[in-house]
Protein 1
Amino acid sequence: MTKAEIIRLIQAALCELKEAAQKMVEDTVPATPLPRPRRFVFVRGVEYPYINKKGEPNWESVKVGGNEGYLPGSISYYCNVAHDIAARTQFKPRNVLRAIRRIQAATEWCKARHKGRLRAAKEVIRQQKRAAEMLEAELVINNLKQ
């Protein structure tokens, strides 16, 4: 397996992570809170998500070394982060596979949090529906009393 192929594999895993992170942070109706961040270390010096000094996570960003490596739509960013991860694994198949599995674990975590936020929104709607029906019943009772 060539170095370019290894970088492409890592890049594909990062693209999937970015898509899952974007879905996870989408607004829900009604609004639900974002999850508490969980730190994923892909390789030494490369972490997800980037957490700023205030403790706020940037879900579409990976911390590379002391810097922030963003994962926007540009292929060059994916390539830079993927190349850095590959270089830190020294292109050893075992280390590359471990890094890819960790990226995939972060992706699955994001997907699970997205599903959880959707379930929470459904539950809020269900609870609000019940309360609205009770208020309607109270209104009918008050109208009958008058």
Note: The chain has one domain: 3-145.
Protein 2
Amino acid sequence: MTIRPPLFLIGAGFNVDAAAEAGPVGLPSTYPLVHQLANICFGLSELPSDRSIEELLAEAIASKNRGPIDKLYDSLMQADYYLAGRLSGPTFSSSYRRFLSRFSRSHFLTFNYDSLLEVMLFQLRQ
């Protein structure tokens, strides 16, 4: 009988505490949550009740409107630069790093927009 390492499905909320975990990083930076993307990408106070953020982004792409995607990209890249860079540093201890180290032989699948998990796994050579 072969024992296989666990598979972790990482979804929304994985990085919700990343800013608090990283501590001061210079600029205000957090990973945007889905409910914040309506404002970040489209300047809306909330999503229309009949549409998801993915539908709005798909419509922007279909109409060749790069603005919302560029805003999403900029928001994620800022968070990845400041937060993932710090959290994945070799001398920085965090709950994220401890979790990934503890399950270093595991497999991870994520549907998150950001790259926190991938950056940390890369830094840990996993």
Note: Strands lie at 7-10, 107-110.
Protein 3
Amino acid sequence: MQASPRVSRGGFVVIKLLVNGIVCLLVRKNLKWKDVNLIGGHEKERDQNSLTRAAYRELWEEVPSIRNMADLSLQPLTSEVRYGPVLSRSVGQETNYEVQFFLLKINGNPTNLLNNLGARTLNVLIPQEEILKNENGRVSGLILFLNRILPEGIAGIPLSSPSNLNPTGRWADRRHDQLEFAWS
């Protein structure tokens, strides 16, 4: 008799920004799997069985530049949904993921979110249309799942902020074809 798939719970955050006139998602590289995923991750005991808390904690851990920003909130995009069973590459067994997706809403000026990320961050800004095309297969299954379950897909998710950002430093003055999707 085969054991039922393991269960893993997680909270994930969509950060959708208009940068130099281009709708982009701030996502995170996974160097081990050579793909990108949403900001977020597995629920821990300290999250007290709350995927909202897990999403906030992961946001603070993975996007430290957000810690100095005021007037942020997470708005649920979905209720808890099941993704799977899929083979978990990290544990090598079939896993059902119980996940919830949130939109980061930024009511203040979000420019510092990008300006203060730092050169060594695993966070990358990718045009929404590149994520949806997924021509190189480097978009995580979780992002593709979210795109399938939302009535209007990821394209229907509102922006995190209405501002058209013109960041300095790493993403300053980049055209559409210059925004990152590199694995250097």
Note: The chain has four helices and ten strands.
Protein 4
Amino acid sequence: MGKADRQGAGRSQRVPYRPGEDPGRRHERRKDCAAADVALLLDWCEHHEFTVTRKNEGHHWIILHPTFRAEWWPSSAKLVFDQRWEHGIHCHDVEQVIQQLSRRLPPVTQATRSP
């Protein structure tokens, strides 16, 4: 997991970068924000066939879909799909994680849509 992220999800509105902030404090803010927004993620996941497990006191989130696996470490902002560490995405908050999860959902076809 020590590899640098390949891409970023952009600037966070929820956990903005603060120049000069101690990295430990920044990591703590990210984790606290994720904990505060867990209901948002759980609600979204429930409607899109995901299950979420939080481990290590909220430091490691495992987000499972029938077609892929995502893991997120809020404090370091690392999001990884299917354990492809070299393709990590830097996601600062739950909204950015949801955006990345949405991009990987299979397309909805006419046959699978509800009337």
Note: Residues 1-10+21-82 form one domain.
